Amino acid sequence: MRVAGRGQPVEWRRELWGSPLRSLATVLLLALLMWIGFHVVEWGIVHAVFRPDAEACRAVQHGACWGVVAEKWRPMLFGRFPYEEQWRPAVAVVVLSAVTMLSAWPRTWRWWLVPLWIVALLLFVLLMRGGVLGLSHVPTGRWGGLPLTIGLAVVGLALAFPLALLLALGRRSDWPVVRTLSASYIELVRGVPLISVLFMASFLLPLLWPAGWQPDVLVRVLAGLALFVAAYLAEIIRGGLQAVPRGQTEVAMALGFGRWPVQRDIVLPQALRLVVPALTNNVVGTLKDTSLVTVVGLFELTGALGLALGGDPTWRPFYLEGYLFVAAVYWVLCFGLSRYSVWLEKRLSAAP
């Protein structure tokens, strides 16, 4: 829909009813949406069962069984974490999410964010792992659900971004060796799927370590995810660097600025501002790609759903409702990221 100008009404009537063909298409589209909406409401609300009653769910022929969510929401969200200790991953998610949202506010982009992140990550690991302060020890193999999804995404991106920045600068370097190594790493990693990187990190890397000393599987998977995401982020950042006019660099160096101050204070802020939508797209993709860790024995949100329903024959027939619940959680996270991207882009474009 087009806007004729500031303060003028949107020309929605012309867009929807401006010609006989457009009017026919509008009527057909509205009819289709009403038909779909009627059946969705009938299935998901009118004939649905909301109480955790498996017998009532089986008795309903054409209705959703939301009772499976009411019955299984804790194993869906927290996986195999001990039931009586599930307050710990809940608090850990709140802490990590709060620090992430605080860091997303431009006014908080100060030096103290670094120690704050260190404290938040230590608290996250302390709550999840335990073993101190009277908390029972929970091995990483029992971590799962939403805490594992958010933890992998947030920590993986936090580790990948500095490496991506170095790779992007290295690929634009005047030194042939640095440029070649950076380009080779990016093209090599981007040429393989993430699932193969996770397999290598989980099963191949332990063969290269000395006997008797192997990093935890979660650490290996996190390293593989960070190395994989860094290659994609590096190309996004490089695109932003190339979009900054070269004349600005030349003028700044002519005024006496060094190479690194020019990159840090002039080029990088503009480059990152230009690629906010692309960076958000990569963040959303990384959040959803965490579901692949199930293949190496870590049960994040989708894997926890399989554990919650796969071993319970009473609720196993209601996978669809469980997947819709998990999809709703992913949608809330991804939609929030997209709205934040729009807000940040407008704020940065309005900044001097």
Strand content: under 5%
- The count of β-strands is 1
Through-space gap between termini: 30 Å
* Helical content band: over 70%
Give a short account of the largest sheet: none
- H/E element sequence: HHHHHHHHHHHHHEHH
Structure class: mainly alpha
Counting H and I runs of at least 4 residues, what is the number of helices? 15
Radius of gyration: 25 Å
**Mean pLDDT over the residues:** 87
Summarize this entry quickly.
With 352 residues, the chain is mainly alpha-helical. The protein contains 15 helices and one strand.
Describe the structure.
With 352 residues, this protein is mainly alpha-helical. 71% of the residues lie in helices and 1% in strands. It contains 15 helices and one strand; from the N terminus they run H-H-H-H-H-H-H-H-H-H-H-H-H-E-H-H. It has helices at residues 12-17, 20-46, 54-59, 67-78, 87-103, 113-129, 145-171, 176-190, 194-208, 217-243, 246-254, 259-274, 276-289, 301-310, 319-350; one strand at residues 299-300. Helix 7 crosses helix 10 (217-243), helix 7 crosses helix 13 (276-289) and helix 8 packs across helix 10. It is globular.
